[in-house]
Specification:
This protein is α+β, with helices and mostly antiparallel strands. It is built from 37 helices and 14 strands. The strands form three sheets. Strands 9, 10, 11, 12, 13 and 14 form a six-stranded antiparallel beta sheet that branches. Strands 1-8-3-6 form a four-stranded antiparallel beta sheet. Helix 7 packs antiparallel against helix 9. The longest helix is centred in the middle third of the chain and has 37 residues. The N terminus is likely disordered. It comes from Nicotiana tabacum.
Length: 961
């Protein structure tokens, strides 16, 4: 990045209140931190059941403490010394200490599914929105404020104030309990907005200090600061997840690594790469959020509790510290402005400017915000505008400007002080006014009210509690000691309003079921029950870490589409397919790597389908238990059963094509469940005190080692060896061991994914394919008549053999429709077999009849398995060779396949070339379209043909039997 001009390094003229804190001990800062945490605990205790955001109260208390220390003649002693030490904290240090915790926790706690849906909206507000807001605020400051700042300085303040602080916004929305969709948009936009604003701030910061940039250099800097930051976060996140793959069931390592990487990633981006550390933390947190479903239920709960705790501590400290810094700026501005009342007026003016600029940005992008993701109505757009809080990040940036001020040529000390004053006032007003009235706005719009279905659920839950209380009262009433039921009822107010005449002990015979009229709510309840069942299957070992995230994502996607029906299988079915790039990688990757990938994909697919079936059965039973014989519930259950049928079809297809995969997946599930059962048994023995602690630890380590080894072991499916496949195939069974050995040596085993092409129509014949596992389908029939049904060739089929015998190119495309283990035999080996004699050629012709029969009459042979077709050809077929000019007759009560040569129909004079079906009544009856398409149709019981070129015909009798 080229700089045209760079001024001297600025120096700090800000002396402030240093003299008053000269005798302070650095450890006094610990007193301030301890008192701050105590205040935070007290506020949380007092405000637990109120609608007042505790962050607003903390900011006010911090401002009050700062005002007592900086604005009164009664210093606070050791606490005051700690306040002064913390108020003079370096701005970069302030961000480096608190942001890695707060930003990472905010991004980590967000739902990945909702982030994907809302990403376009967040990027609009955080990208172009920041630039528009910076220009609007900077222009208003330049034109309305009498400070005689140049455009660069005004835009620098605009960049600082354009950032909606994620720390303040996230803390506010958690307190208010806003909808998850709205919280995701506001939180995600705020995090990205803040990161983008810092990049813009750094650009104008350098300009104000004397650097000049061309337009190209400006774009390069913005790209480096934003895109570079995201890349750094993704790299650190993926490296951390790769590390965690080698860690099994150790939450301490999970916590420690996430915390450590967040600080290192922020430092790398912010200090070394000159990128936005916040955007790096957002990307890092989202990468970790994608993997949080791979933890067990207990581990996931512990992880959330850990991050909530440290985020709460950081929030408490940073908001009280922000209040102290604001108080310091308020009282220190008197050193530069004699008319402080005017300065306060400008604070209110800048607050109005912030709200107007925020409204303009949302209004400009409102059509796009309504279109993308979940959409945004005018009420939600109003909440987005009102949630544009400013907080500690903007305050820290203004402190950086103040610390760099002092040189009148670039940035005067008065300007630096005014930056802190205006920013601090904006933080104070947005948090107090917007933060304290956000709940009122939500209530005014009815966005915090329960829906009709939710009210129904509340009443049902209270009735269930009342029934439980009745059961409890019956048990207690049977005891010898009497109870004062009036006293008991006075405290059990949670069920008093179920019915007005509730008496104690309660007496109710209400056994009604949960009655939900809203189909969407009914489906959402079913899907949430399915999600909990997924967690149970995960903890029981029925599914793996690599598949639980797919199952959870399917529930999230289905909830979004709940008004249209159950659609969780639609999402899962797309994940079961092999991606398009697999075809390329299976051709270029080493065979071992290809096999591992294919087997892993199939194994995960089987786990997903098994867990899907199991979870849906549990959810259906729960729905029946709670709703009874409800019409809406019956509809949802029918939809679930239809989806389960699709899952069972997939498992059946895997069983038919690759049974080894299904057996291996089931074996792993049984093994994991057994080991977990043994672990629970060990815990029971430990609780009963039978075993000593040393013995328990020893056996526990052995069990954990077994579980870890099972979770990390690659798919160990044992496919039949090449020699075994060739030796047991009926075609090669009677060949000598030497011939089979030559075939084995010239063959190659290839594992193909679905959709891979073995060969294409008209391509040069180079090899013959033996299908060892899986199935292959023919495409694009080359014959004069059209076959609407593709032919499928299962295990044991030999493809390309017919073309090798007649010396033709491949007749059609052959494409795998499942994972297929294919054996590629060189053409030279087949030709050498023909030279062996001893009836080998006859065997080859009979074998290729199977492939030709399925190709020419797919409808007739699709109902037979491969073994049945082979039996029909072996037992009921006769092969004959006819010389040129010979006249032959074919019966219409048998199937005749012309394998080689050429015939001429004596009735129609039509020339018939191989391969072809000669007409028969059986074919006409079984294939409705055959009468119009079959060649050489005649009305008699026999058809006559003249051999034009030596012909080989196979007659198959009595196929209907």
């Amino acid at each position: 990045m080229a700089s045209v001009e760079e001024g001297p390094l600025p120096y700090n003229l800000w002396e402030g209140e240093k003299s008053s804190s000269s005798n302070s001990n650095p450890t006094d800062a610990v007193i301030f931190a301890g008192i701050s945490l105590l205040i935070g605990v007290s506020c949380r205790t007092l405000l637990r059941r109120t609608f007042i955001p505790y962050t607003v109260v903390l900011l006010i208390i911090g401002t009050a403490l700062g005002s007592l220390e900086f604005g009164s003649n009664y210093p606070l002693g050791k606490l005051g010394n700690g306040i002064r030490i913390c108020a003079d904290i370096d701005a970069d240090l302030l961000l480096a200490v608190f942001l890695p915790i707060l930003i990472f926790e905010g991004a980590f706690s967000m739902e990945v599914h909702q982030i994907k849906k809302c990403m376009a909206q967040m990027l609009l507000l955080a990208g172009p929105g920041v630039l528009i807001s910076t220009v609007l605020i900077g222009a208003a400051v330049k034109l309305a404020f009498p400070y005689d700042w140049n455009w660069k300085t005004s835009l620098l303040l605009g960049a600082i104030l354009s950032a909606t602080d994620p720390v303040a916004v996230v803390a506010l929305l958690k307190d208010l309990g806003a909808s998850k969709k709205l919280s995701t948009i506001v939180e995600g936009e705020s995090m990205m907005n803040d990161g983008a604003a810092i990049v813009v701030y750094q650009l104008f910061y350098r300009m104000v200090l004397g650097k000049s940039f061309g337009w190209v250099a400006v774009l390069e800097y913005l790209a480096q600061g934003s895109l570079g930051a995201v890349i750094i976060g993704l790299v650190f996140g993926m490296a951390s997840l790769f590390w965690l793959r080698f860690v099994y069931n150790d939450t301490l390592i999970d916590f420690s690594l996430a915390l450590t990487v967040s600080y290192i990633a922020y430092y790398t981006a912010q200090e070394q790469a000159e990128a936005s550390g916040i955007l790096t933390l957002v990307a890092l947190g989202m990468v970790f959020a994608m993997s949080k479903d791979t933890h067990t239920a207990g581990g996931k709960q512990s992880l959330h509790e850990f991050w909530e705790m440290i985020a709460y501590i950081a929030n408490t400290l940073i908001f009280i510290l922000s209040g102290v810094i604001i108080a310091q700026s308020i009282f220190s501005i008197r050193n530069f402005d004699d008319n402080t009342g005017r300065s306060w007026g400008y604070i209110f003016l800048i607050y109005i400017i912030l709200q107007v600029s925020r409204a303009i940005v949302v209004f400009v992008f409102y059509p796009a915000l309504r279109y993308f993701g979940y959409g945004l109505n005018w009420k939600e757009a109003t909440i987005v505008i009102w949630s544009g809080l400013r907080g500690a990040v903007g305050l820290a940036l203004s402190l950086s400007v103040k610390s760099a001020s002092g040189d009148p040529k670039y940035l005067s000390a008065e300007t630096g002080a005014m930056f802190v004053f205006l920013t601090g006032g904006s933080v104070l007003l947005t948090l107090i006014i917007n933060g304290s009235t956000a709940q009122l706005l939500l209530s005014l719009f009815g966005m915090d009210a329960l829906s009709k279905s939710e009210e129904t659920m509340v009443n049902y839950a209270k009735h269930q509690l009342l029934r439980k209380a009745e059961e409890f009262s019956r048990i207690c009433s049977g005891r010898d000691n009497p109870f004062d039921w009036i006293t008991v009822g006075g405290y059990a107010t949670c069920i008093k309003d179920v019915c007005e005449d509730t008496i104690w002990p309660p007496c109710t015979t209400n056994n009604s079921y949960l009655d939900i009229d809203d189909m969407k709510t009914m489906r959402v309840c079913f899907l949430k029950a399915t999600r909990e069942a997924y967690w149970s299957t995960f903890n029981e070992g029925r599914t793996t870490e690599s598949t639980i995230s797919v199952l959870m994502e399917s529930v999230d996607e289905a909830i979004d589409l709940a008004t249209q029906g159950l659609h969780d299988w639609n999402y899962i079915s797309t994940r079961l397919k092999f991606p398009g790039y697999c075809k390329f990688f299976t051709n270029v990757c080493p065979p071992r790597l290809t096999r591992w990938f294919v087997l892993k994909k199939l194994q995960d697919s089987c786990h997903i389908c098994s867990a899907f079936i199991h979870a849906h059965r549990i959810a259906r039973q729960l729905l029946l238990d709670y709703t009874g014989d409800n019409g809406n519930a019956a509809i949802v259950i029918a939809e679930s059963e239809a989806e389960e049928l699709e899952a069972r079809k997939f498992l059946e297809s895997v069983k038919n094509s690759m049974p080894e995969i299904l057996h291996q997946a089931e074996s792993r599930q049984v093994t994991f469940s057994m080991l977990k059962c043994l672990d629970e048994c060990l815990n029971d023995m430990e609780k009963e005190g039978i075993l000593t602690e040393k013995v328990v630890l020893h056996i526990h380590d052995l069990l954990q080692n077994d579980l870890e080894k099972l979770s990390r072991s690659p798919p160990s499916v044992r496919f039949p060896k090449l020699g075994d496949v060739i030796s047991i195939h009926p075609l090669f069974l009677n060949l000598s061991p030497a011939i089979r050995y030559d075939l084995e040596r010239s063959s190659k085993v290839i594992l193909k994914t679905p959709g891979c092409t073995l060969y294409t129509k008209g391509s040069k014949l180079t090899s013959v394919w033996l299908i060892g596992n899986g199935s292959v389908t023919s495409k694009r029939s080359p014959f004069p008549f059209h076959c609407p049904v593709d032919s499928t060739y299962a295990r044991g089929s030999i493809l390309g053999l017919y073309e090798a015998l007649v010396g033709k190119p491949y007749l059609c495309d052959m494409v795998t429709n499942s994972v297929a283990l294919c054996i590629k035999i060189k053409l030279e080996s087949i030709i050498s077999l023909l030279a062996q004699g001893n009836g080998v050629e006859e065997l080859l012709w009979k074998e290729c009849t199977i492939a030709v029969a399925k190709l020419l009459a797919p409808d007739m042979f699709k109902k037979f398995s491969m073994q049945e077709v082979r039996g029909i050809v072996d037992e009921r077929s006769v092969m004959n060779t006819f010389s040129s000019q010979e006249i032959i007759e074919t019966s219409h009560h048998s199937i005749n396949f012309l394998l080689s040569g050429c015939l001429r129909d004596q009735t129609t004079e039509q020339l018939i070339e191989c391969p072809a079906i000669l007409p028969c009544s059986i074919l006409n009856e079984s294939v409705p379209y055959a009468r119009a398409n079959v060649m050489g149709e005649s009305s008699g019981s026999y058809s006559k043909y003249k051999v034009v070129k030596e012909a080989r015909i196979v007659r198959v009798d009595n196929i209907s039997a």
